[in-house]
């Protein structure tokens, strides 16, 4: 049997195995799930080992890395596959139509936390490798699999891991499927991702909640103050007001504008997808330019005072919020964090205590837009989907891509099989079974195409 026939013969089995993988609540952000994360790593390692990939679980200061390799000849191309087996917290649970960790098929979709981000997408490469090993066919490339367990909580130990394991990770190129297609039946090669930087801001006022009748008007209200701080981070044109925020941002190139113009993007459909009454953003840019090529700032959560049933007339003791900035290449996360810190310190009134926690971040990246690997990826997608891929960027971040380049000198191929309305990080996360299948066939073809491109 050849690898493709093996794949055809195993489609049901493969989906059942993916469902086993999806049943682990491997939520990396929450310590209560530490055991589940480990159990998931163990399941994955055992699965890869059974396929014939030499696999180990490597502890880190956080969640363990699952590392596998199958090296058959020093003359072959070595490909480093990266993915993450951890997932986002499923909350709010009441908005899920089915249980997040009990995968269900509904119409064309499988529904489960991690279906598209990233277990389902990662699994396509694992199954492509299996198609060779399971038939005894010669794997035409050397493969290494580096699967981390804390991407969704910021990959805090990953850079150290890469620094400490340069030899283990040595390869000719990296392959990641953790992005999306451009649209339905528009598979894509992604050539850039934004970075991200995190801060938390807390404003502390009175040493306890106070009666707002007896004290209101004469005592600083931390919520009012924090709201004003957050509001002053953008101007009326949707630009971020932090001095020097745009200092290192390159203007969008003519080439990129042309790429974006060529894509079939409907503002109306986009609006319908997000369900708001209208769209907004930095003046002078289109939606895709705003998401792909401009830095942004967003408040991700804000807390303070009383939000329970009924009313409570108080001046709250404190208010806090979490802010992330999405960055484009050439912006330095540390620099940007220092700038927001300095700016908030200047605008915050001195009669409250201000605490800013700097959480660091990861820079934006661009990967090569031509060359043999890219051509191979295009050919593989064409074989797996029967469709020509488009060239896109994405607004999300995969911290490891920049680290691969910086530390290992490695370029990455970003091939996404998902859709951006697959509800990643949202309730009812899903992945089209058809996209999963087409992803599997593309991954299989990629192995052959990369081997060919090497020659
Ligand atoms: N798979 C996503 C990255 C992604 C999102 C790519 C959207 C393309 C479009 C990844 O799992 C993710 O969620 N990354 C985080 C990184 C952060 C926690 C450092 C992100 O982008 O928020
Ligand atoms: Mn992901
Ligand atoms: Mn994610």
Report a brief summary of the structure.
With 455 residues, the protein is α+β, with helices and mostly antiparallel strands. The chain contains 15 helices and 18 strands. It folds into two domains: 3-193 and 364-454, Zn peptidases (Aminopeptidase, 3-Layer(aba) Sandwich); 195-249 and 295-362, Alpha-Beta Plaits (2-Layer Sandwich).
Describe, in plain words, how this protein is organized in 3D.
With 455 residues, the chain is of the alpha+beta class. It folds into two domains: 3-193 and 364-454, 3-Layer(aba) Sandwich (Aminopeptidase), CATH 3.40.630; 195-249 and 295-362, Alpha-Beta Plaits. Helices cover 36% and strands 22% of the residues. It contains 15 helices and 18 strands. The strands form four sheets. Strands 1, 2, 3, 6, 7, 8, 15, 16 and 17 form a nine-stranded mixed beta sheet that branches. Strands 11-13-9-14 form a four-stranded antiparallel beta sheet, covered by helices on one side. A three-stranded antiparallel beta sheet has the order 4-5-18. A hairpin with a 6-residue loop joins β1 and β2. The longest helix has 22 residues, at 433-454. The protein is globular and about 80 Å long. Bound molecules: ligand BES and manganese (II) ion (MN) (2 copies).
């Amino acid at each position: 049997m050849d690898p493709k026939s093996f794949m055809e013969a195993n489609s049901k089995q493969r989906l059942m195995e993916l469902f086993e993988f999806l049943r682990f609540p491997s939520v990396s952000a929450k310590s209560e799930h530490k055991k589940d994360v480990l159990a998931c790593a163990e399941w994955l390692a055992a699965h890869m080992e059974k396929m014939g990939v030499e696999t180990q679980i490597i502890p880190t200061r956080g969640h363990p890395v699952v590392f596998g390799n199958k090296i058959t000849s020093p003359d072959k191309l070595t490909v480093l596959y990266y993915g993450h087996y951890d997932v986002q917290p499923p909350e709010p649970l009441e908005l899920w139509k089915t249980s997040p960790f009990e995968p269900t098929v509904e119409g064309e979709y499988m529904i489960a936390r991690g279906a598209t981000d990233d277990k389902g997408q990662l699994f396509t490469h694992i199954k492509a490798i299996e198609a060779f090993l399971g038939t005894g066919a010669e794997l035409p490339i050397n493969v290494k699999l580096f699967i981390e367990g804390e991407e969704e909580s910021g990959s805090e130990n990953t850079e150290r891991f890469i620094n400490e394991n340069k030899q283990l990770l040595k390869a000719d190129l990296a392959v990641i499927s953790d992005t999306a297609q451009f649209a339905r039946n528009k598979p894509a090669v992604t050539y850039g991702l934004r970075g991200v930087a995190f801060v938390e801001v807390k404003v502390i006022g009175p040493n306890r909640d106070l009666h707002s009748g007896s004290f209101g008007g004469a005592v600083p209200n931390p919520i009012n103050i924090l709201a004003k701080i957050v509001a002053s981070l953008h101007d009326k044109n949707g630009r971020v007001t932090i001095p020097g925020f745009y200092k290192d941002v390159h203007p969008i190139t003519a080439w990129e504008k042309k790429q974006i113009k060529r894509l079939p993007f409907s503002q109306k459909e986009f609006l319908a997808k997000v369900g708001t009454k209208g769209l907004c953003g930095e003046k002078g840019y289109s939606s895709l330019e705003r998401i792909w090529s401009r830095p942004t700032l967003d408040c991700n959560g804000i807390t303070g005072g009383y939000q329970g049933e009924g009313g409570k007339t108080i001046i709250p003791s404190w208010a806090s919020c979490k802010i992330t900035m999405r960055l484009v290449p050439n912006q330095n996360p540390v620099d940007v964090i220092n700038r927001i810190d300095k700016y908030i310190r200047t605008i915050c009134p001195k009669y409250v205590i201000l605490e800013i926690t700097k959480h660091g971040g990861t820079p934006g990246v661009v990967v090569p837009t031509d060359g043999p690997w890219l051509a191979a990826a295009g050919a593989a997608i064409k074989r797996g989907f029967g469709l020509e891929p488009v060239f896109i960027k994405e607004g999300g971040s995969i911290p490891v891509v920049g680290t691969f380049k910086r530390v290992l000198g490695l370029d990455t191929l970003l091939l996404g099989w998902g859709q951006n309305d697959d509800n990643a990080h949202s309730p009812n996360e899903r992945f089209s079974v058809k996209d999963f299948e087409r992803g599997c066939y593309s991954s299989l073809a990629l192995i052959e195409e990369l081997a060919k491109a090497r020659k």
